[in-house]
Amino acid sequence: MIRPSVLLRRALQADALVSGAMALLCAFGAGALSPLLALPQPLLLETGLFLIAYAAFVGWLATRAALIRPLVLLVIVGNALWTLGSIALLISGAVTPNALGIAFVVMQAIAVGVFAELQFIGLRRSERAVTA
Asked: Coil, strand or helix: which one is 39?
């Protein structure tokens, strides 16, 4: 167990908030976003549904007084993989988004990468919690 630094707690809270907003946008706006971004509607919808669960988990984690280190590492590694996966999606040719769609994917990848970095730095600043 660790006592989270202020940076780690705020990074987790911001991640949950931004992921929740993206979840709602993708889950409920997939039909409108798909033609605008030239991204497949099922991809946007499934991303939104996944992010609902992810945002709830990270939001819950951010409220704990002491954090389980492996869960924090799971979030950090997951965010790093999400960033790499987003860029790989564009490079792979599996989707052919327009310029706005490319910008959408790249910007969210950058944001998620920043969260991963902030969470990693915050984790390193955190103290081990004293257990009695």
From this structure: coil
Domains held by the chain: number: 1
pTM over 0.90: yes
Q: How far is CA 58 from the centre of its chain?
A: 9
Dihedral sign for Cα 52, 25, 48, 29, please: positive
pLDDT tens digit sequence for 107-129:
999 999 999 999 999 999 998 76
Range of the domain at 96: 2-126
Q: For residue 127, what are the CA distances in angstroms to 2, 4, 10, 123?
A: 6, 7, 16, 8
Q: How many C-beta atoms surround the C-beta of residue 129 within 10 A?
A: 14
Within-domain flag for 132: no
